[in-house]
Specification:
By secondary structure, the chain is α/β, with parallel strands linked by helices. The protein has 14 helices and 17 strands. It is an enzyme of class 2 (transferase).
């Protein structure tokens, strides 16, 4: 049956090559294939399934809405589903954090949100250049791709990607170089040749780039530089927002307030495509219809996204993520030390990575884990990082089972590598 994909689906398909199973159902932290085999999911749809697969409260809300013939598609016309989401997001997420943003619903994917944010930043500033960072990933459409660091992905554009400048991300050049100092000096000196950009866009934790984490003081300094120079600061929270790092927004711990925030992936909470751009009110300078999209009013997404906010009515999920994060951190650091792996563990909340000096190790461990019914992906420019993205609601028992599987297979891969090099 898999031949139907090989015969008729484009060669661009990717994840199915790494995880070649025919999946038919999923619940919580587990996926089941057409043979009835169960796989523990440490991938979570690349951060889409933060609350696990088919969470009952979201499923019930969606079924109820569809069963009563709730309207599905409205473009940007008013609907009860949209009203309820806007109201609840304000009350549960924004107001308790002292945040004031207007909401724009672009097309339904993360790259749509990034394109809208970049376009608006250029409009309100009258400037065209955007600063991004090494190893960034912001999407596959041309504007988002222009601020993405991955050379392989950029080459796929087929055209020049212009009006962007890439700077070293926090830690990219080691602990000593003051790369933000360089950026600030260039902005302050009229002889530098650097024009003031319209925007700076970044992920506070670079997920696809290899689980690279920006330090709080680095983020605070970047926020100050952008404020001092009238530069729009855009935080791309598409993969590491919605609780992935513990708090709802990844930038909360640094105490900064971006000018715009892009959200997607786990925003709907159910795997339904949905995206959102949060915009400081003074920057909401769109003319009616100036930026649109056919699927910017997908009401089933509003329904499940509204229900997903139940997870954020109190701090239980945030505390649960902190507890599980400690388990992951201790286990990963422990196994790297016990097994003598040349690797670095890095992460926040429930996004973690093991970055190996030998760039072949991560992929081998991922493949071995898949044979052991654990789905865990790789990240980084050379796939040198084993990247863990379990659901935020995973049980301690399932979390530990997955970590045991990783340790078992890492030990086997390291032993095999040692034998081959001997």
């Amino acid at each position: 049956m898999n031949n139907i994909f090989e015969q008729h689906e484009s060669e661009v398909r990717g994840y199915c090559r790494n995880f070649p199973a025919m999946f038919s159902s999923a619940k919580g932290a587990w996926m089941t294939d057409d043979k009835g085999e169960r796989y523990l999911d440490f991938f979570a749809g690349a951060g889409v399934m933060n609350y696990g697969h088919n969470p009952d409260k979201l499923k019930d809300a969606l079924i109820d809405y569809i069963s009563r013939d709730g309207i599905t598609h409205t473009l940007d016309m008013y609907s009860e589903a949209k009203r309820d989401f806007i109201d609840r997001f304000q009350r549960v997420i924004l107001q308790p954090r002292g945040l004031t943003y207007k909401m724009q619903f672009p097309g339904p994917t993360g790259t749509n949100a990034v394109e809208a944010a970049l376009k608006l930043a250029r409009k309100v500033t009258g400037r065209d250049r955007v600063v991004s960072f090494t190893n960034a990933f912001h999407g596959m459409t041309l504007g988002a791709l222009a601020v993405t660091g991955n050379g392989f992905k950029r080459a796929g554009a087929g055209v020049s990607l212009q009006n962007t400048t890439s700077l070293p991300f926090c830690g990219f050049m080691g602990d000593d170089p003051d790369t933000l100092g360089f950026f600030e000096a260039m902005l302050n000196d009229e002889g530098s040749g650097m024009e003031t950009p319209a925007a700076v866009i970044l992920e506070t934790v670079q997920a696809e780039g290899g689980v690279n984490i920006a330090a709080a003081d680095w983020l605070q300094r970047l926020r100050q530089i952008t404020e001092d120079h009238g530069i729009v600061l855009i935080v791309d929270d598409i993969q590491v927002g919605c609780g992935r790092t513990g708090k709802f927004f990844s930038f909360e711990e640094a105490g900064i307030v971006p000018d715009m925030v892009t959200l997607s992936k786990s925003l709907s909470g159910y795997g339904i495509p949905m995206a959102l751009v949060l915009i400081k009110p003074e920057l909401d300078q769109w003319a009616p219809g100036e930026h649109n999209g056919t699927f910017r009013g997908h009401n089933p997404g509003f329904v499940t996204a509204t229900k997903a906010l139940d997870y954020w009515e109190n701090d239980w999920l945030e505390k649960a993520v902190a507890h599980k994060s400690k388990i992951v951190d201790e286990r990963l650091n422990g196994m790297v030390k016990r097994l003598g792996a040349d690797a670095e563990v890095r992460g926040r909340g429930l996004i973690y990575g093991i970055a190996f000096d030998d760039i072949s190790i991560a992929s081998k461990v991922s493949q071995a884990c898949f044979k052991d019914r654990l789905i865990v992906e790789t990240a980084g420019i050379d796939d040198q990082v084993l990247k863990l993205l379990p659901s935020l609601t995973i049980s301690d028992e399932d979390l530990i089972t997955g970590l045991d599987t990783i340790e078992k297979n890492l030990a086997a891969v390291l032993k095999s590598t040692e034998r081959k090099s001997a």
